[in-house]
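For reference, the entry.
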Amino acid sequence: MKTRHKRMAFILVGLAGLAVAAGLVLNALNSNLALYISPTDVKAGNMPKDKAFRLGGMVVEGSLKRQDDGLTVHFDVSDNVETVTVAYTGILPDLFKEGTGVVTQGRLTDGLFKASEVLAKHDENYMSPEVAEMLEKGEKANQAAADTKAPY
């Protein structure tokens, strides 16, 4: 084999190796991707059916219910338009409480969002940009609905 042919074979093998590595990386990223979905989108059915996704909003006041096992909790998450009930088994973050922002990750099963992870805001001024935008849209929608109602 000539030197030129050896060099060409080496380049082709290298490119094939890069293609395989890129395919494996993209597959790993795709399987770990968790889309962010609002409660309004969940109620409308605009969410992945077979994949985990992130649900965020505000924990509704008075909705936190603990079961007898001490680890399982149910609470409602709202975007000021719609509300979704979340079930979580585990230890909640220290900053988790009613009336604060939360992002949960899990799957929707029979109308109940079963969370595998619960993230609470890390200080009193922080809210994820997605949650803030979603809450602002919900507030505007509620305001527009209130403005269109006829006074009695």
